[in-house]
Amino acid sequence: MSETKFKDIARQIEQRIDEGIYPPNAKLPPHRELAAELDTTPATISKAYKLLAEMNRVESFVGRGTFVVGESHLNQAIQPSESETEFNFSILQPYVLQNLSPLRIAYQKASLAFTPELLAYTDHSGHHAHREAGAMWAKRYGLNSATASNVLLTNGAQHALSLLVETLTQPGDVIAVEALTYPGILAIASLAGRQVIGIDMDEDGLIPSALETVLHTHKPKLVIAIPSHQNPTGITMPIQRRQAIAAIIEQSAAYLVEDDIYGFLNEDTLPAICHWLPEKGIHVSGLSKAISPAMRCGFVVAPEHLLPVLNAHIRANVWLASPLNFIVAEQLINSGDAFSMADAQRDIAKQRQAIAKDILGDVISESDGYHVWVTLPAHWQQERFVMEAKQRDLIVTSGSYFVAGNTNPNCIRLSLMSIKHSEALKQGLRALKALLESHEVSLAPF
Ligand SMILES: Cc1ncc(COP(=O)(O)O)c(C=O)c1O
């Protein structure tokens, strides 16, 4: 094979992408097929696809093929409301009417705590008192080892995840995730040119033997798991499963990133997986889901040996996470208000779960968090359902945005928290129920 042949082929494919012959999100032809058409070998096509992936023009998924990079799945999964008449089931956020007044008061009070030191640049990654508050938060929800000295402050959990992917892996490295996972993780991996491998799950989350196989076969540098109220399946890993996962990671060369942003929703606190991984587990939490995503307050608890490299990355990237919001976080956590606000959100989620169960019945996942994972009846295909729902002002998220493995879920995710009034929630759920049961629509031309 000539040294440059694959580059010529990559240019030809890129031209087809630019001309719309291969539109955004389209699956590219299999290697063998395109090789025959372009009079080359499958190995050359493979090198061309790899080059295009490095240029962020295409994305490859093991077992699924190579796709033209389109609008980020993250953007498609979470849709802002376009009108008052819509029922928006796509946004996983705390119930806004609950935290509005306590937050207004907290921000007013916090402004009185401004000092010249707090308004200045600091020469370390965040103020001690703010990191101490972060440690209290992580401790309260299952990670006893958190202290001010092993907590880092980030601009939300998303920043934390991207920080960890960028510091603990190199371009081309493999990251293992749950077979169905939060699209924000997939977006980071795609942007940073990391390969993603999905690990099979059962009703208790990541399957230990599947994790072992992936560690052995693909040698990922990082495993990312969401152990509580998993996005999107709603699964909470029981304690035995957490221990089993920790034991496997301990024996491997990989680090575990535990995204525990929904840990506060557990009625009885469960130990974090990182509890058993003092040297290899990195725990991510924050206030976005319990209080407000607008605060952008994230907490990372990391083993001591990783702190310098993580701190250096935060500094190079954003200097430091905004201390003004962490003043509020510190006050809310120290006064206990943050925990009461989180409890109140959990109660609302429970009430709304009961409403959803009542209206939708058995098609929804067993969960008590902010969302439900709905298995569609056989006569519905998920993309089609999402489109038909949108026509009826029902904004729901297709299961396809969460796929990291070989699964094809035929599911949708519904957030129960973003519709303000419970009567409107019921109305939206009833309309969804009617659509789920309707056969006629699904027979109409697509
Ligand atoms: C599992 C998971 N991790 C992280 C995030 C992002 O959190 P933040 O708003 O703190 O960046 C989300 C938001 O939906 C999420 O579901």
UniProtKB/TrEMBL annotation:
Q: Which residues form the HTH gntR-type domain?
A: 3-71
Q: Which organism is it from?
A: Enterovibrio norvegicus
Record's protein name: PLP-dependent aminotransferase family protein
Q: Among its keywords, does the record have Metal-binding?
A: no
Q: Does the keyword Ribonucleoprotein apply?
A: no
- Which CDD domains does its entry note? AAT_like, WHTH_GntR
Which InterPro entries is this protein grouped with?
Answer: Aminotransferase_I/II_large, HTH_trans_reg/aminotransferase, PyrdxlP-dep_Trfase, PyrdxlP-dep_Trfase_major, PyrdxlP-dep_Trfase_small, Tscrpt_reg_HTH_GntR, WH-like_DNA-bd_sf, WH_DNA-bd_sf
Q: Which family does it belong to?
A: In the C-terminal section; belongs to the class-I pyridoxal-phosphate-dependent aminotransferase family.
**GO: which molecular function terms?**
transaminase activity
PANTHER family listed in its UniProt record? HTH-TYPE TRANSCRIPTIONAL REGULATORY PROTEIN GABR (PTHR46577)
